[in-house]
Structure formats: C-alpha cells, structure tokens
Specification:
Elements (H helix, E strand, L loop, with lengths): L5 E4 L12 H20 L9 E5 L7 E3 L15 E3 L10 E4 H13 L5 E5 L2 H7 L12 H4 L5 E4 L8 H11 L4 E4 L3 E6 L2 H23 L9 H13 L6 H11 L7
Parallel strand pairs: 7-8
Antiparallel strand pairs: 1-5, 2-3, 2-6, 3-4, 6-9, 8-9
Helix pairs in contact: 1-6, 1-8, 2-5, 3-6
Length: 261
Amino acid sequence: MMSTLETAVAPAPSPAGESIDEAAIRRARVDFAAVHRIIVHENMHEGTWNHLSCKVPGRPGHLLISPGQTHFSRVTASSLVEVGPDGRPVGGEGRLNVSAWAIHEPVQRARPDIMCALHIHAPYSTALASIDGWRLDERGSQNAAVFYGNCAYFGYEGIVTEADEGERMVEALGDKRVLFLANHGVLLVGDTIEKAMLWLYQLERACMNEMLALQAGRKIRPIPAEAAQHNADMSVESTGEAGYLEGMKEVLDAEGQDYAS
C-alpha cells in the first residue's frame, strides 16, 4: 500500500537529441547507490526514511533520487529513480517520495555548483539540532572545522510535502554546505558525490565529538580561527579524501553487497 508521503508516477520519455555519456551516468549511479549503503554501514540511516539526490551527468534538470519505500541497505544503481524537471521518472517505473522532491528539486535547481544533496536524520546531528538555540561549535574539533563558516539553520515546520518549504530551505542554506533542520536532521550539499559523503560522515562525527565533550561537563578548547579556516578551505579545494569513496566501496564489496547491480 502506498504511503501518504509517496506517490507512484508514470514514466516520462527519455530526452531526445541529447549526447549522453552513458559511462558517466553509470559511474554516478554506482557511486550514488554506494552512498546509501555507506550511510547504513555508519549507522546514520532510518531504514526506508530519508532521501538523497544527485544530478545526472549530461542531463540538465534531471536528478537521481532515492527510491521510495526502499531500505537504504537495498538501494542499487538500477533502483535509483531518475526524475526529469517535470517531476516524473524517466525511462521506467518509479516511486517518488513527495518529501524528497519537495526538498531536493529546489535545492538542486538553485545550486548549479553542487552535484549531490544528502538529507538524513543521523543520531548526533539530529540530537544537537533539537537543543534550543544550539549552533555547531565550528572550532570544537578537526572535523567541525571542515565546516567553519559553512553552516546554516532552519526552524521546524513539520513533515515536508510542499515545494514552498523546500524553497525556504534554499533561502536559508544560501551558498553554504550544511543546513541544520531544527528537531529534524541535516541537509548537506557537495560538488561531488565523494565529497558529499565524506563531509556527511565528518559532520556526524563532529556532532558526536561535541556531544561527548558536552557530556563531560567541561569547556571545549577552540581550534584557532586561522586553523579552522584552513581546514575548511582545504576540504572545499580537494577532490576528496584520497580515495575515500573507493575505499568504502571495497568494504562493501568485501561484504558481498550488490549496490552496483
């Protein structure tokens, strides 16, 4: 039975007259499917909930989105839903989560500089975002410094089903990489699939570090502002943490996971 937060939609025809790099699309599908499995591996998932998106190489306005009603541990390259600008799946049947489209379409459209957008309800980032008046201590740890000057915040407005709330998220996010959603979770964007996944991991670890430090009841020693800015600049300028995604895919492959199918 269809969830009230999901809608089955008829497929739209594939765009005609375009030069498509099928190999690039295949790589994006495999890497993006692997991201879902890594999120499970790192225990940052909520089963069939949460949703991610990435742009389709060579197809402006087209997104790959997490398939609705599918546990992240079962997402594969072929099960990802390609959605056109009109909100309909391209080239096959698909089930599109209403909240996913309401959030990801406005964000991806407004940010031509990004490739990937990840929205999850990970334990530590969600817990801290639920504390009244909380802001990430961006100088509190090496991981936190990666996001120095790159965090934005958004108040809770209920379960997202309407595009206008997605537009308000876009406005709140601006040109930053992280949007903490009060009492809800986090939205993170990156210019590559690998960097987005690495940053998501680092963000959750930064929140875990801060939570543990706060529980110790002691004052956090701040990283110098210059060092924090250096960390943030390096993370943006790099192409990824020297094979982070490939290394994690090797872990998945050793476990016999079928994300690439």
